[in-house]
Protein backbone atom coordinates (compact mmCIF):
# COMPACT_ATOMS: atom_id res chain seq x y z
CA UNK A 1 0.00 0.00 0.00
CA UNK A 2 2.77 2.45 0.87
CA UNK A 3 4.43 1.71 -2.49
CA UNK A 4 1.25 2.71 -4.32
CA UNK A 5 0.95 5.89 -2.26
CA UNK A 6 4.55 6.80 -3.02
CA UNK A 7 4.07 6.01 -6.70
CA UNK A 8 1.15 8.47 -6.94
CA UNK A 9 3.48 11.30 -5.92
CA UNK A 10 5.86 10.73 -8.85
CA UNK A 11 4.01 13.12 -11.25
CA UNK A 12 4.09 15.83 -8.58
CA UNK A 13 7.80 15.25 -7.98
CA UNK A 14 8.38 15.48 -11.73
CA UNK A 15 6.67 18.88 -11.88
CA UNK A 16 8.64 20.11 -8.86
CA UNK A 17 11.89 18.90 -10.45
CA UNK A 18 11.17 20.70 -13.71
CA UNK A 19 10.28 23.94 -11.89
CA UNK A 20 13.46 23.66 -9.79
CA UNK A 21 15.61 23.24 -12.89
CA UNK A 22 13.78 26.11 -14.64
CA UNK A 23 14.62 28.34 -11.67
CA UNK A 24 18.31 27.54 -12.11
CA UNK A 25 18.19 28.03 -15.88
CA UNK A 26 16.31 31.32 -15.74
CA UNK A 27 17.59 33.02 -12.58
CA UNK A 28 21.18 31.82 -12.56
CA UNK A 29 22.06 31.23 -16.19
CA UNK A 30 19.91 33.90 -17.87
CA UNK A 31 19.44 36.73 -15.39
CA UNK A 32 22.70 36.57 -13.47
CA UNK A 33 25.25 35.23 -15.98
CA UNK A 34 23.84 36.32 -19.35
CA UNK A 35 21.93 39.60 -19.05
CA UNK A 36 24.23 42.61 -18.68
CA UNK A 37 21.77 45.45 -18.05
CA UNK A 38 20.95 45.94 -14.38
CA UNK A 39 17.49 47.40 -15.01
CA UNK A 40 16.51 44.58 -17.36
CA UNK A 41 17.88 42.03 -14.93
CA UNK A 42 15.86 43.46 -12.01
CA UNK A 43 12.64 43.69 -14.02
CA UNK A 44 12.96 40.10 -15.21
CA UNK A 45 13.71 38.82 -11.70
CA UNK A 46 10.80 40.69 -10.07
CA UNK A 47 8.24 39.59 -12.65
CA UNK A 48 9.58 36.03 -12.66
CA UNK A 49 9.36 35.63 -8.90
CA UNK A 50 5.84 37.09 -8.76
CA UNK A 51 4.64 34.55 -11.31
CA UNK A 52 6.58 31.75 -9.63
CA UNK A 53 5.10 32.50 -6.19
CA UNK A 54 1.52 32.67 -7.49
CA UNK A 55 2.04 29.51 -9.55
CA UNK A 56 3.48 27.51 -6.65
CA UNK A 57 0.93 28.88 -4.20
CA UNK A 58 -1.95 27.79 -6.44
CA UNK A 59 -0.31 24.42 -7.06
CA UNK A 60 0.15 23.86 -3.32
CA UNK A 61 -3.47 24.73 -2.57
CA UNK A 62 -4.68 22.39 -5.31
CA UNK A 63 -2.65 19.49 -3.97
CA UNK A 64 -3.31 19.97 -0.26
CA UNK A 65 -6.85 21.36 -0.34
CA UNK A 66 -9.08 20.10 2.45
CA UNK A 67 -11.48 17.81 0.58
CA UNK A 68 -14.36 17.56 3.02
CA UNK A 69 -16.52 14.42 3.23
CA UNK A 70 -20.14 14.18 2.13
CA UNK A 71 -22.40 15.58 4.91
CA UNK A 72 -24.01 13.03 7.20
CA UNK A 73 -27.54 13.83 6.08
CA UNK A 74 -26.80 11.97 2.82
CA UNK A 75 -25.57 8.84 4.61
CA UNK A 76 -28.00 6.07 5.35
CA UNK A 77 -28.65 5.54 9.08
CA UNK A 78 -28.22 2.03 10.37
CA UNK A 79 -31.96 1.42 10.42
CA UNK A 80 -32.33 2.41 6.77
CA UNK A 81 -29.22 0.46 5.83
CA UNK A 82 -30.66 -2.62 7.52
CA UNK A 83 -33.86 -2.22 5.53
CA UNK A 84 -31.89 -1.76 2.34
CA UNK A 85 -29.80 -4.87 2.94
CA UNK A 86 -32.89 -6.87 3.82
CA UNK A 87 -34.88 -5.86 0.74
CA UNK A 88 -35.33 -8.82 -1.58
CA UNK A 89 -35.97 -6.96 -4.82
CA UNK A 90 -34.44 -3.98 -6.56
CA UNK A 91 -37.83 -2.29 -6.60
CA UNK A 92 -37.91 -2.60 -2.82
CA UNK A 93 -34.46 -1.09 -2.57
CA UNK A 94 -35.48 1.69 -4.96
CA UNK A 95 -38.48 2.53 -2.78
CA UNK A 96 -36.37 2.66 0.37
CA UNK A 97 -33.91 5.06 -1.26
CA UNK A 98 -36.68 7.22 -2.70
CA UNK A 99 -38.27 7.56 0.74
CA UNK A 100 -34.93 8.40 2.35
CA UNK A 101 -34.01 10.95 -0.35
CA UNK A 102 -37.38 12.70 -0.55
CA UNK A 103 -36.28 15.43 1.89
CA UNK A 104 -32.76 15.80 0.48
CA UNK A 105 -31.94 18.72 -1.84
CA UNK A 106 -31.21 16.60 -4.92
CA UNK A 107 -32.56 17.08 -8.43
CA UNK A 108 -30.39 14.73 -10.50
CA UNK A 109 -31.01 11.06 -11.14
CA UNK A 110 -29.34 8.09 -12.83
CA UNK A 111 -29.92 7.26 -16.47
CA UNK A 112 -32.79 5.01 -15.38
CA UNK A 113 -34.39 7.74 -13.26
CA UNK A 114 -33.38 6.28 -9.89
CA UNK A 115 -31.81 8.01 -6.91
CA UNK A 116 -28.05 8.28 -7.36
CA UNK A 117 -26.72 5.92 -4.70
CA UNK A 118 -23.12 4.86 -3.99
CA UNK A 119 -22.95 1.27 -2.75
CA UNK A 120 -19.31 1.71 -1.69
CA UNK A 121 -19.75 4.79 0.49
CA UNK A 122 -23.33 3.78 1.40
CA UNK A 123 -24.86 7.18 0.75
CA UNK A 124 -27.14 9.05 -1.59
CA UNK A 125 -24.96 11.16 -3.86
CA UNK A 126 -25.53 14.92 -3.71
CA UNK A 127 -25.99 16.64 -7.05
CA UNK A 128 -22.76 16.64 -9.08
CA UNK A 129 -20.97 14.35 -6.58
CA UNK A 130 -19.26 11.20 -7.87
CA UNK A 131 -17.26 8.33 -6.46
CA UNK A 132 -13.51 8.50 -7.12
CA UNK A 133 -12.07 5.00 -7.38
CA UNK A 134 -8.54 6.28 -6.75
CA UNK A 135 -9.43 8.27 -3.61
CA UNK A 136 -11.97 5.55 -2.62
CA UNK A 137 -14.63 8.07 -1.61
CA UNK A 138 -17.42 10.20 -2.99
CA UNK A 139 -16.35 13.75 -3.84
CA UNK A 140 -18.50 16.89 -4.06
CA UNK A 141 -18.76 18.35 -7.58
CA UNK A 142 -16.05 16.04 -8.85
CA UNK A 143 -14.39 17.23 -12.06
CA UNK A 144 -11.70 14.58 -12.44
CA UNK A 145 -8.85 12.95 -10.57
CA UNK A 146 -5.63 14.66 -11.63
CA UNK A 147 -2.38 12.66 -11.26
CA UNK A 148 -0.34 15.87 -11.64
CA UNK A 149 -1.72 17.14 -8.31
CA UNK A 150 -2.33 13.69 -6.77
CA UNK A 151 -5.80 14.81 -5.77
CA UNK A 152 -9.34 15.05 -6.99
CA UNK A 153 -10.23 18.30 -8.69
CA UNK A 154 -13.61 19.10 -7.17
CA UNK A 155 -15.69 21.75 -5.40
CA UNK A 156 -13.10 22.39 -2.70
CA UNK A 157 -10.13 23.09 -5.00
CA UNK A 158 -11.50 23.84 -8.46
CA UNK A 159 -10.72 27.55 -8.12
CA UNK A 160 -7.16 26.67 -7.05
CA UNK A 161 -6.86 24.32 -10.04
CA UNK A 162 -7.98 27.05 -12.45
CA UNK A 163 -5.49 29.50 -10.95
CA UNK A 164 -2.77 26.85 -11.09
CA UNK A 165 -3.39 26.36 -14.82
CA UNK A 166 -3.56 30.10 -15.44
CA UNK A 167 -0.40 31.02 -13.53
CA UNK A 168 1.48 28.02 -14.94
CA UNK A 169 0.59 29.20 -18.44
CA UNK A 170 1.73 32.77 -17.67
CA UNK A 171 4.93 31.38 -16.12
CA UNK A 172 5.73 29.42 -19.28
CA UNK A 173 4.82 32.29 -21.60
CA UNK A 174 7.04 34.68 -19.64
CA UNK A 175 10.04 32.34 -19.77
CA UNK A 176 9.43 31.62 -23.44
CA UNK A 177 9.14 35.30 -24.44
CA UNK A 178 12.17 36.47 -22.47
CA UNK A 179 14.33 33.58 -23.67
CA UNK A 180 13.27 33.99 -27.31
CA UNK A 181 15.89 36.66 -28.22
CA UNK A 182 18.66 34.44 -26.90
CA UNK A 183 17.29 31.43 -28.78
CA UNK A 184 17.38 33.50 -31.98
CA UNK A 185 20.99 34.49 -31.24
CA UNK A 186 21.83 30.83 -30.60
CA UNK A 187 20.20 29.86 -33.90
CA UNK A 188 22.35 32.46 -35.73
CA UNK A 189 25.47 31.23 -33.93
CA UNK A 190 25.92 34.50 -32.04
CA UNK A 191 25.18 33.39 -28.48
CA UNK A 192 28.10 32.51 -26.20
CA UNK A 193 31.11 30.36 -26.91
CA UNK A 194 30.91 26.79 -28.11
CA UNK A 195 32.16 25.56 -24.77
CA UNK A 196 29.60 27.45 -22.69
CA UNK A 197 27.10 25.09 -21.07
CA UNK A 198 24.90 27.90 -19.74
CA UNK A 199 23.51 28.79 -23.15
CA UNK A 200 22.12 25.27 -23.55
CA UNK A 201 20.13 25.65 -20.32
CA UNK A 202 18.56 28.84 -21.70
CA UNK A 203 17.75 27.30 -25.08
CA UNK A 204 16.35 24.18 -23.45
CA UNK A 205 14.28 26.35 -21.08
CA UNK A 206 12.75 28.02 -24.14
CA UNK A 207 11.73 24.69 -25.68
CA UNK A 208 10.38 23.27 -22.41
CA UNK A 209 8.37 26.44 -21.77
CA UNK A 210 7.01 26.32 -25.32
CA UNK A 211 5.99 22.68 -24.97
CA UNK A 212 4.21 23.21 -21.64
CA UNK A 213 2.61 26.47 -22.85
CA UNK A 214 0.94 24.63 -25.73
CA UNK A 215 -0.48 21.87 -23.50
CA UNK A 216 -1.43 24.25 -20.68
CA UNK A 217 -3.05 26.68 -23.10
CA UNK A 218 -5.38 24.04 -24.51
CA UNK A 219 -6.23 22.67 -21.06
CA UNK A 220 -6.80 26.09 -19.52
CA UNK A 221 -8.94 27.16 -22.47
CA UNK A 222 -11.07 24.04 -22.14
CA UNK A 223 -11.66 24.60 -18.44
CA UNK A 224 -12.51 28.27 -19.07
CA UNK A 225 -15.19 26.96 -21.42
CA UNK A 226 -16.43 24.59 -18.71
CA UNK A 227 -16.55 27.38 -16.12
CA UNK A 228 -18.48 29.66 -18.49
CA UNK A 229 -21.06 26.89 -19.04
CA UNK A 230 -21.03 25.60 -15.44
CA UNK A 231 -20.02 22.06 -16.31
CA UNK A 232 -17.49 19.64 -14.92
CA UNK A 233 -15.34 17.40 -17.10
CA UNK A 234 -17.57 14.46 -16.19
CA UNK A 235 -20.70 16.42 -17.09
CA UNK A 236 -19.14 17.44 -20.41
CA UNK A 237 -18.79 13.77 -21.33
CA UNK A 238 -22.17 12.74 -19.90
CA UNK A 239 -24.86 15.36 -19.37
CA UNK A 240 -26.45 15.32 -15.90
CA UNK A 241 -29.80 13.58 -15.77
CA UNK A 242 -32.79 15.43 -14.31
CA UNK A 243 -36.35 14.30 -13.82
CA UNK A 244 -37.17 15.74 -17.22
CA UNK A 245 -34.20 14.13 -18.93
CA UNK A 246 -30.54 14.87 -19.63
CA UNK A 247 -29.52 18.53 -19.88
CA UNK A 248 -25.90 19.55 -20.37
CA UNK A 249 -26.80 23.14 -19.42
CA UNK A 250 -28.91 22.21 -16.41
CA UNK A 251 -26.66 24.00 -13.91
CA UNK A 252 -25.82 26.98 -16.13
CA UNK A 253 -27.12 30.28 -14.72
CA UNK A 254 -25.38 32.68 -17.10
CA UNK A 255 -21.69 33.04 -17.89
CA UNK A 256 -20.92 35.70 -15.27
CA UNK A 257 -22.91 33.95 -12.52
CA UNK A 258 -21.21 30.69 -13.49
CA UNK A 259 -17.84 32.40 -13.11
CA UNK A 260 -18.75 33.80 -9.69
CA UNK A 261 -19.96 30.38 -8.54
CA UNK A 262 -16.34 29.19 -8.85
CA UNK A 263 -14.37 32.36 -8.07
CA UNK A 264 -16.71 34.08 -5.61
CA UNK A 265 -18.39 37.46 -5.42
CA UNK A 266 -15.30 39.48 -4.40
CA UNK A 267 -13.30 40.63 -7.46
CA UNK A 268 -10.28 41.48 -5.31
CA UNK A 269 -9.92 37.78 -4.42
CA UNK A 270 -10.48 36.25 -7.85
CA UNK A 271 -6.77 36.01 -8.65
CA UNK A 272 -5.71 34.91 -5.14
CA UNK A 273 -5.65 31.18 -4.24
CA UNK A 274 -7.95 31.45 -1.22
CA UNK A 275 -11.29 29.66 -1.08
CA UNK A 276 -14.12 31.94 -2.23
CA UNK A 277 -16.38 29.58 -4.19
CA UNK A 278 -20.07 30.05 -3.50
CA UNK A 279 -22.20 27.43 -1.78
CA UNK A 280 -21.58 24.30 0.22
CA UNK A 281 -20.83 21.89 -2.63
CA UNK A 282 -24.08 19.99 -2.16
CA UNK A 283 -26.80 22.29 -3.51
CA UNK A 284 -26.62 24.23 -6.76
CA UNK A 285 -28.98 26.60 -8.54
CA UNK A 286 -30.52 24.99 -11.61
CA UNK A 287 -32.51 26.21 -14.54
CA UNK A 288 -36.16 26.85 -13.78
CA UNK A 289 -37.45 23.73 -15.51
CA UNK A 290 -35.33 21.54 -13.22
CA UNK A 291 -36.14 23.18 -9.87
CA UNK A 292 -37.72 20.98 -7.22
CA UNK A 293 -41.50 21.05 -7.23
CA UNK A 294 -41.81 20.01 -3.61
CA UNK A 295 -38.95 20.40 -1.21
CA UNK A 296 -38.53 20.34 2.55
CA UNK A 297 -36.24 23.17 3.58
CA UNK A 298 -33.08 21.97 5.40
CA UNK A 299 -32.98 22.73 9.09
CA UNK A 300 -29.55 24.33 8.92
CA UNK A 301 -30.63 27.60 7.35
CA UNK A 302 -30.27 28.59 3.71
CA UNK A 303 -31.73 26.47 0.96
CA UNK A 304 -34.63 26.11 -1.41
CA UNK A 305 -38.16 26.73 -0.21
CA UNK A 306 -41.10 24.88 -1.75
CA UNK A 307 -41.78 25.43 -5.45
CA UNK A 308 -38.12 26.30 -6.05
CA UNK A 309 -38.08 29.78 -4.48
CA UNK A 310 -35.37 30.81 -2.06
CA UNK A 311 -34.95 32.60 1.22
CA UNK A 312 -31.49 33.96 0.52
CA UNK A 313 -30.27 34.44 -3.00
CA UNK A 314 -27.38 35.54 -5.17
CA UNK A 315 -27.60 37.21 -8.54
CA UNK A 316 -30.96 36.69 -10.18
CA UNK A 317 -32.59 34.75 -7.36
CA UNK A 318 -30.05 31.93 -7.23
CA UNK A 319 -29.26 30.41 -3.85
CA UNK A 320 -25.90 29.31 -2.52
CA UNK A 321 -26.17 27.48 0.83
CA UNK A 322 -23.37 28.18 3.27
CA UNK A 323 -20.56 25.66 3.56
CA UNK A 324 -20.38 24.08 7.01
CA UNK A 325 -16.99 23.89 8.70
CA UNK A 326 -17.48 21.17 11.28
CA UNK A 327 -19.20 18.29 9.50
CA UNK A 328 -19.25 14.98 11.35
CA UNK A 329 -16.57 12.86 9.69
CA UNK A 330 -17.85 9.46 10.80
CA UNK A 331 -17.59 7.18 7.78
CA UNK A 332 -20.00 4.44 6.80
CA UNK A 333 -17.03 2.66 5.28
CA UNK A 334 -15.46 1.91 8.65
CA UNK A 335 -14.58 -1.71 9.29
CA UNK A 336 -16.64 -1.78 12.50
CA UNK A 337 -19.72 -0.73 10.59
CA UNK A 338 -19.46 -3.49 8.06
CA UNK A 339 -18.50 -6.15 10.60
CA UNK A 340 -22.03 -5.81 11.99
CA UNK A 341 -23.39 -6.99 8.65
CA UNK A 342 -21.05 -9.97 8.45
CA UNK A 343 -20.60 -11.31 4.95
CA UNK A 344 -23.87 -9.94 3.60
CA UNK A 345 -23.56 -8.40 0.17
CA UNK A 346 -23.81 -4.66 -0.21
CA UNK A 347 -26.84 -3.49 -2.18
CA UNK A 348 -26.66 -2.86 -5.90
CA UNK A 349 -23.35 -4.62 -6.47
CA UNK A 350 -22.44 -5.52 -10.01
CA UNK A 351 -24.30 -3.97 -12.90
CA UNK A 352 -27.02 -2.20 -10.95
CA UNK A 353 -28.09 1.18 -12.21
CA UNK A 354 -27.96 2.76 -8.75
CA UNK A 355 -24.24 3.43 -9.04
CA UNK A 356 -24.43 5.20 -12.37
CA UNK A 357 -23.01 8.66 -12.83
TrEMBL record:
Compartment(s) of residence: Membrane
Record InterPro entries: Palmitoyltrfase_DHHC, PFA4/ZDH16/20/ERF2-like
Domain comment in the entry: The DHHC domain is required for palmitoyltransferase activity.
Sequence intervals crossing the membrane: 12-35, 42-60, 160-183, 203-222
Single GO term (MF): protein-cysteine S-palmitoyltransferase activity
One Pfam family per UniProt: DHHC
Entry keyword annotation includes Transmembrane: yes
EC number in record: 2.3.1.225
This protein's name: Palmitoyltransferase
Catalytic activity: L-cysteinyl-[protein] + hexadecanoyl-CoA = S-hexadecanoyl-L-cysteinyl-[protein] + CoA
Amino acid sequence: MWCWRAFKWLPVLLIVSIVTWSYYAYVIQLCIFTIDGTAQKCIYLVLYHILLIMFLWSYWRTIFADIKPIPDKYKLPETELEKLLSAETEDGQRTILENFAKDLPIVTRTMSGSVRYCNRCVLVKPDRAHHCSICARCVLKMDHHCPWVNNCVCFHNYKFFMLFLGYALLYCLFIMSTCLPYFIRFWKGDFGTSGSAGRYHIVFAFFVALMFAISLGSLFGYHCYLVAHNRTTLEAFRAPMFRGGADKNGFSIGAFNNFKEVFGASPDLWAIPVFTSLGDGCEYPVRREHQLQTFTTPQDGGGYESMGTTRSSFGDGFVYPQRTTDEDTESLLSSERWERWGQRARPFDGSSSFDEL
